[in-house]
Write a structure and sequence with these properties.
Elements: E1 5-15, E2 22-30, E3 35-43, E4 49-56, E5 61-68, E6 71-76, E7 92-100, E8 108-116, E9 119-121
Parallel strand pairs: 1-7
Antiparallel strand pairs: 1-4, 1-9, 2-3, 2-5, 5-6, 7-8
């Protein structure tokens, strides 16, 4: 059997302050609320990042919900429709989620769009 590679969106999660310990859930939903990606992370100095988790590019991500230590943040999927902000041919949309805040502080997030050439095996 020959496996096919299909284009994929990526989700990378980073802990900005490695002295903090954070429990994080990233959920991505389509416009109708259907969940197309969900993953839990335990971030600390020993595990400060998780790069390039994937989900099929054929989905239409609309909303990113990030829960950090029980605090929920909801933001739209970054816009890639502007001709000056489109992924070059052969690359697909992805996001970086930066978890910010010092230990003992209330967390915040920074959501950044990115482009990568990543595929899934079918």
């Amino acid at each position: 059997m020959i496996s096919a590679e299909i284009p994929a969106h990526t989700v990378s999660v980073y802990l900005h302050n490695r002295n903090a310990v954070r429990d994080v859930t990233v959920t991505i939903k389509e416009d109708d609320g259907a969940v197309v990606f969900e993953r839990d992370y335990s971030l600390s100095d020993d595990n400060e990042a998780h790069e390039d988790a994937t989900f099929p590019e054929t989905t239409d991500p609309h909303t990113v919900v990030v829960t950090v230590d029980g605090k929920q943040f909801e933001q739209p999927w970054p816009e890639f429709t502007d001709p000056n902000n489109q992924c070059p041919k052969g690359n697909w949309e992805g996001i970086e989620v930066w978890i910010k805040g010092d230990p003992g502080e209330s967390p915040t997030i920074l959501l950044i769009g990115n482009c990568q050439h990543v595929t899934l095996e079918e």
